[in-house]
Amino acid sequence: MSCTQSDLTKITLALSLPGGAMQNVGLLASAPLMVSDHPETVRDTMPTSGVLWHHLYSASAGPVIHRVFLWHVNGTGISKKIGITIGNGAAVGGPSLRITAKRQQGQETSGANYLTLGKCIAKALLGATLDTVTPVDALVTPQHVGLIEEFTWPNGALQGGEWEITIQQEGNPTGPVSYRLRTVFGPTTADLRQYQGTPLPSSDPHVRGGWDDSEIQLTYVFGIPPGQAYTSGIKLADASANPPSPDFLLTKSTSYDSTNATDNKANFGAIYQNIQLQIDNGRETAARTVSIYLGGRGGAFTGAVSSSLLGSSVSGIPTLSVNSDVVSLGQVSVPAGRGQNVTVRVAVGGASSTPFALYLDSPYP
Predict the structure, then answer these.
(1) C-beta atoms surrounding 66 within 10 Å
(2) pLDDT tens, position by position, 97-136
(3) For residues 231 and 16, what is the distance between their CA atoms, to the nearest angstrom?
């Protein structure tokens, strides 16, 4: 397992969240993201094989790193096979594609363990400790489909994971070349390379889509009012708010194949790479202590986090109950008339309920 990072300690602490405004919210130039979590459960009333999701991409000689988040349950009644393929769209005589990959994946047959798997994947992703894996087809020639990895998929099992797949042109680079990543499934004896059609039709509300970037940045300014205690913070991944929180960026409308895509409301598979908490004690005549916490605001929440106050090492977030459980991201003393910046990074674990919140709490005196 590559998710050996320790977990933070859960604290029972109910904090109010008056709510603050995010600033400078946007996507960083980063690895393209494909999410395949729809239909979350593949049932026996659906086609018996086919494409779960796809992402057509055009890139130069590279290398280009793609992130692929996969999260599907086999509800067909029989064992299947599930995997990831890539089709090389270059013309005959054009460049081949050299494939390398890293990933964290697993299977769970009990829903009680879904959050544990989601946390493990998030820790490996945020901590850059994904396992290296050798693709079945490490070189894909023009007009052919290669198999990156496949798994026997028992009935009732969740197959979950995140891959970082590096694609490099070889042989005769001619400029941008299109290729298509696919998540596919079929009978246990099937050659998964054969499935190249449109994704399964589904009314499932879960996520599927493909976006050009996978990392989010934002800023929150915490201005400490003089002479009084103050608690504030921000809700993240709050797509159900009216309007949605500004970090709701991976939408159906911005996805590849937007007709068949769905919103990525929880930012599954992505990384909050640069959350800047700017603490301002410019109006106070004495130093103020500020404690920073992370908690769930929509249901059971897990994932991975790092904080510059904790040495920037990555830790797991234990399963947090809504509104009552938090983890501490550290404490800082801010001198009078000064400011202090704190950097936080977060990856949301699969099966988590969002939104989640960052709280900043400054008691007085």
Answers:
(1) 22
(2) 999 999 999 999 999 999 999 999 999 999 999 999 999 9
(3) 7
Q: How far does CA 290 lie from the centroid of its chain? A: 29
Contact (CB, 8 A) for 46 and 77: no
Give the number of other Cβ atoms within 10 Å of residue 198's Cβ.
Answer: 10
Q: Is the pLDDT confidence value at 31 over 80?
A: yes
Pinpoint the alpha helices (H) of 91-137.
Answer: 114-126
Q: Could you tell me which of 123, 115, 122, 161 has the C-alpha nearest to residue 320?
A: 115
CA distance 193 to 116: 31
pLDDT at 18: 64
Is the pTM here over 0.90, yes or no?
Answer: yes
Q: Is residue 173 pLDDT above 80, yes or no? A: no
Torsion region of 309: left, alpha or beta (phi above 0 gives left; psi -120 to 50 gives alpha): alpha
Is the CB of residue 281 less than 8 Å from the CB of residue 341? no
